[in-house]
Write a structure and sequence with these properties.
Helix content is 33%, strand content 23%. It has 331 residues and is of the alpha/beta class. Bound molecules: acetyl coenzyme *A (ACO).
Length: 331
């Protein structure tokens, strides 16, 4: 198969756990308040997986929804990319579990690790595969279950995160629709600001690690905040410049849903009205690689994105990484 057409998103879907954890619930767990969390982050509640649920359960539901939204069946998918850092188990790739559950036997599937930027990294990989003609219909899923890597005794991080999954089908699209440009980046010197210290080849778990929560996320919130505020605006401006556009051409921005103050800083820097930024983090918190596709799915369902609209997705996360993409919405 060769493909001279552009690639674009032809279907989206998402799935979150049923269980809601509110700020008031957190008040009973750590020394915090609903007011602090809402003022400092914009989050009111988040969804948390129940016992027995795992990342692939939500990834599968989101993937199925995206395939159905695209009017396709799982057998039409010829590549599966799952952006996550909280797979069901360290081995094998959780994408393979999703592939099997979808009934796509033989379809290549792999996990992609780029923290909260993973979904947009995945879109860029899918775009390259579709445009090159290697694969025609790629399922890109962003799924994370942060509740299993959250230190529930650390008030500076446990109030931020939630669980969920979002997905998109990438395929050839007609006319001037589809992806116009991507801007991907990483700065490994910032790895120490957002990491899980133990559990890998550098530092396998010891009983002390588990007792001291070193198998959970450790974050320098201030450092990540400074990085996020800078990179979100810069990456958006750079990706628009790559396709000869400016912020004036943008109809909707889907930013990584980490903190309303970070999003507000982009509103100010880019000089766009707040209505052009889709925000739903009040309901879900920061769901890492799932945050952008969940927001994208909701924005489409609410009619906030229409055929022909110029849509920017922009994320940042552990690595430190960042990723932005511009597309003309195809349907
Ligand atoms: N409730 C009440 N007080 C708190 C809480 C809490 N949950 N957490 C921290 N505080 C206190 C601190 O102890 C500190 O108190 P002190 O002044 O007496 O020392 C005070 O609030 C200020 O704390 P800071 O950490 O300095 O507050 P900051 O303005 O940096 O806001 C926040 C913290 C919200 C975490 C912010 O740094 C942030 O959003 N950073 C970015 C995080 C992010 O986006 N991460 C996602 C990246 S991708 C990924 O996660 C995979």
């Amino acid at each position: 198969m060769t493909c001279a057409k552009r690639a674009g998103i032809v279907g989206v879907g998402s799935a979150v756990p049923d269980r809601v954890l509110t700020n008031f619930d957190l008040e009973k767990m750590v020394d915090t308040s609903d007011e602090w969390i809402r003022t400092m982050t914009g989050i009111s509640e988040r969804r948390i997986a129940s016992e027995g649920e795992a990342t692939s359960d939500f990834a599968l539901k989101a993937g199925k929804a995206a395939i159905e939204n695209a009017g396709l069946s799982p057998q039409d998918i010829d590549l599966i990319i799952l952006a996550t850092f909280t797979g069901d188990t360290p081995l094998p790739a959780t994408a393979c579990l999703v592939q099997h559950a979808l009934g796509c036997e033989g379809t290549p599937a792999f996990d992609l690790a780029a923290g909260c930027s993973g979904f947009v990294y995945g879109l860029a990989v899918a775009d390259a595969f579709v445009r090159s003609g290697h694969y025609e219909r790629v399922l890109v899923i962003g799924a994370d279950m942060l509740s299993c890597v959250t230190n529930w005794t650390d008030r500076s991080t446990c109030v931020l995160f939630g669980d969920g999954a979002g997905a998109a089908v990438v395929a050839p699209v007609n006319g001037d629709a589809g992806f116009l440009a991507f801007e991907l980046g990483a700065d490994g010197s910032g790895a120490k600001h957002l990491h899980i210290p133990a559990g890998g080849s550098r530092h396998p778990y010891t009983p002390e690690d588990l007792a001291q929560h070193r198998d959970k996320i450790v974050m320098e919130g201030r450092e990540v905040f400074k990085f996020a505020v800078k990179i979100q605006g810069e990456a958006t401006e750079r990706v628009l410049a790559r396709c000869g556009m400016t912020t004036a051409d943008v109809d909707m921005i889907i930013p990584h849903q980490a903190n309303t103050r970070i999003i507000e800083s982009a509103v100010n820097r880019l000089g766009l009205p707040t209505e052009k930024f889709f925000v739903n983090l009040n309901k879900y918190g920061n769901t890492s690689a799932a945050s952008i596709p969940i927001a994208l799915d909701e924005a489409v369902a609410e009619g906030k994105i229409k055929k022909g609209d110029t849509v920017v997705t922009v994320g940042f996360g552990a690595g430190l990484t960042w990723a932005a993409g511009v597309m003309k919405w195809a349907y």
